Amino acid sequence: FWLKGSACALYPSPLTCPRFLLFGLTMAKSKNHTGHNQIYKNHRNGIKKTRRSKKLKIDGNMNCKFVRNCKAVNKGMQCSAEEQEAKKQAQREAQKELEGKMQAANEERRAFLLAEREKAKKPKK
User: Fold this and answer.
1) pLDDT tens-digit readout, 58-105
2) Rounded distance, CA 18 to CA 28, Å?
3) How far is the C-alpha of 56 from the C-alpha of 68, rounded, in Å?
4) Are the CB atoms for 19 and 7 separated by under 8 Å?
5) Are 9 and 1 in contact, with CB atoms under 8 Å apart?
6) What are the CA-CA distances from residue 121 to residues 108, 110, 116, 117, 124 (Å)?
7) Is 19 exposed, middle or buried (0-12, 13-18, 19+ CB in 10 A)?
8) How many CA atoms lie within 13 A of 110 on its CB side?
9) By Cβ atoms counted within 10 A, which residue in 1, 4, 17, 80 is the most buried?
10) 14: how many CB neighbours lie within 10 A of its CB?
11) Burial class, 123, CB count within 10 angstroms (exposed 0-12 / middle 13-18 / buried 19+)
């Protein structure tokens, strides 16, 4: 018989032995995992940052109070075409006014820098 004096002596074939079925007769596996070459493979195309979505996701783990407020605001912003055109016109006028202020500030700054440059060119006595 193939295994005398053991618990498996009751089974005629080693394939039907419960020990074989549980543990098998193969050698124990010595290595489970290796990270060899993985860093190289990952860096071949570069490690890239994930792309952030351009649109804000309302669903998910967002604060429900904030979502409710957003819906109310968007509903309140709905208006007729005439009102919308009036808002756009007011916005254009405000933008023109702001650009005028910015241009005046830039000219003032440029004049100041030119004056400073002239002072620096004059030799000190």
Assistant:
1) 777 889 899 999 889 988 888 899 998 999 999 999 999 999 999 999
2) 18
3) 14
4) yes
5) yes
6) 20, 17, 9, 6, 9
7) middle
8) 6
9) 17
10) 13
11) exposed
| Total count of residues recorded for the chain | 125
For residue 102, give both structure tokens: 């910015």
The residues, ordered by sequence, that sit 6+ positions from 20 with a Cβ below 8 Å of its Cβ are 8, 14
The string of DSSP codes covering 53-75 is PSSPP-SSSS-HHHHHHHHHHHH
- pLDDT tens digits, one per residue of 35-62: 999 999 999 999 999 998 888 787 778 8
